[in-house]
Amino acid sequence: MTENRPNRPDGGFATRAIHHGYDPALEHGALTPPVFLTSTYAFESAEIGQQLFRGEREGYVYGRTRNPGQALLEDRLATLEGGEAGLAVASGMAAISATLWTLLEAGDAVVIDHTLYGNSFALFTKGLTRFGIKVSVADFTDLDAVERTFREARPKLVHFETPANPNLRLIDIEAVTRLAHETGALVMVDNTFATPVLQRPLELGADLVVHSATKFLGGHGDLIAGALIGDKQTVESVRQHGLRYLTGATISPITSFLLLRGLKTLELRVARHSASAQTLAELLERHPKIRWISYPGLPSSPFHALAKRQMSGFGGLVAFELDGGLEAGKRFMNRLSLVTRAVSLGDAETLVQHPASMTHAAYSAEERRRHGIGDGLIRLSVGLETPDDLRDDILQALEAV
């Protein structure tokens, strides 16, 4: 139970990812936190049950809102992101939607960056707008345009990704947050690509952080989950409203267990993802068949200075376009043998996909063009394989282009 956990020393990132919030002595000596496969919880008395429902007593009532393994996961996510509280849910989209349905109502305004994961973009521009919420889109890399849009829209909430999916644009979290707070808006940052290993938006002023925990946090391609981290009052409000009855997007006990396992190696994995991505990005930048490449770790990137300022590393994603556009990209992808053609990212396996026809198909062709998602764009999620093997596979595939 959360209330019985000892106060462990904070320690470094990896120490907290492995130990925070759990004492084996309280669970019969079990080194690994147990999985609580229960949908409901018994009350010692009717009075205790009443206190739990009223929120006058800490504990567990029903599995839709909280499970002991989930609670431990949420505590660890909060400490890793530097937040007061965390909420784990069934998917990254659930984390975003549960938050939006909790905080917004008809008549409110929202401003988003123009480059988001395709389903996030659809939720904001096609979902929220059906319920009387005004959604404005801006280029968050242009601070003058952002300031004008915030001033005109007077948003209640601002949302963006950095690095952005799929073209790896970076947004100045501190600067955008300052402008948003001047107009009274909350700032929600999707930190999926960077993870708290490389970037902690709350420390740069943001109010809320969301993750598709399916990706780097889980890290093994065997789960679907999402997370919200922020101040305790907001997070608990999302739990009681956005999760409990607005979405019902409950994370399973087994998924919580798998995520706790994934967090233990997160720092090590992200370091390997980043190192291999840097090597491959430098290789691709020099290759004569590459038209352009986007990776914040390259000195040639327009976002390199910002990345060095607000991130401690450059991440495991590389975006590029081949001479010959989409057809050349298809030939390249079809020739790969070690690298796997699949959506998602952050797995042990290196994955390659075509955003315009896959993850960002929710954008119209005009929206993709306007927002820098070219028809020939290829997104590479660099995995944990031996770097030389990845290099050899990519070079032989380029020969087919």
Which architecture of the largest domain per CATH? 3-Layer(aba) Sandwich
Determine the fraction of residues in helical runs and give it as a percent range: 40-55%
> What order do the helices and strands follow?
HHHEHEHEHEHEHEEHHHEHEHEEHEH
**Count of alpha and pi helical runs:** 15
Distance between the termini: 57 Å
Relevant CATH superfamily of the largest domain:
Type I PLP-dependent aspartate aminotransferase-like (Major domain)
Radius of gyration using CA atoms only: 22 Å
GO biological process, one term: transsulfuration
GO molecular function: methionine gamma-lyase activity; pyridoxal phosphate binding
Keywords: Lyase, Pyridoxal phosphate
Family: Belongs to the trans-sulfuration enzymes family.
Detailed description of the structure:
- The protein has helices spanning about 15-20, 45-55, 70-80, 90-105, 120-125, 145-155, 175-180, 195-200, 230-245, 255-265, 265-285, 305-310, 325-335, 365-370, 385-400, and strands at about 85-90, 110-115, 135-140, 155-160, 185-190, 210, 225-230, 290-295, 315-320, 340, 350-355, 375-380.
- The strands form 2 sheets. It has a 7-stranded mixed sheet, with helices on both faces.
- Helix 1 packs antiparallel against helix 10 and helix 4 (about 90-105) crosses helix 9.
- About 50% of the residues are buried.
- The protein folds into 2 domains: about 1-265, 3-Layer(aba) Sandwich (Aspartate Aminotransferase, domain 2); about 265-400, Aspartate Aminotransferase, domain 1 (Alpha-Beta Complex), CATH 3.90.1150.
- It starts with 12 loop residues before the first helix and ends with a helix.
- Mean pLDDT is about 95; it is low at about 1-5.
- The protein is built from 15 helices and 12 strands.
- The longest helix has 21 residues, at about 265-285.
